Automatic annotation (TrEMBL):
It comes from the Bacteria. Keywords: Membrane, Repeat, Transmembrane, Transmembrane helix. The chain crosses the membrane at residues 9-26. This is Annexin. GO terms for molecular function: calcium ion binding; calcium-dependent phospholipid binding.
Amino acid sequence: MDAKTKKTVLIAAGVIAAGVVLYYVVKKKTDSSGAIIDPITGGTSTAIFDAGKVAEKLYDAMKESGTDEQAIFAALKNVNASQFDQVFQKFGKRSYNKFLGNQIRVNPFSPLPLEPLNVWLKTELSSDDYYALSLKYNQL
């Protein structure tokens, strides 16, 4: 191997090594809810917040008979009041049967009423859990 080839191989190896190191330095770590973990404080960052994703997690936790309260609180764990406004808007109004707590239509000839997130939460959660959320979020 001549000197020019050695130099080219060393430069290529250096570039690859630098790329690998840069990847691991820049790579963002996330927790189970998808929030970015701050490498300095260990807390989660709200820099990347997807209100639609949180709204869908809430919907999935409440759409069937029986509510997954843990999933509701996990979805809202890192959501502040201003972000909850966005979640509320993304959730919108969805078909909801208040009496059965699901989306089953008793009368197939009439549609279910469209209800906003606060109605879903108030119906699905215990009064204590709903009250705790209402202290955190003004919209409830």
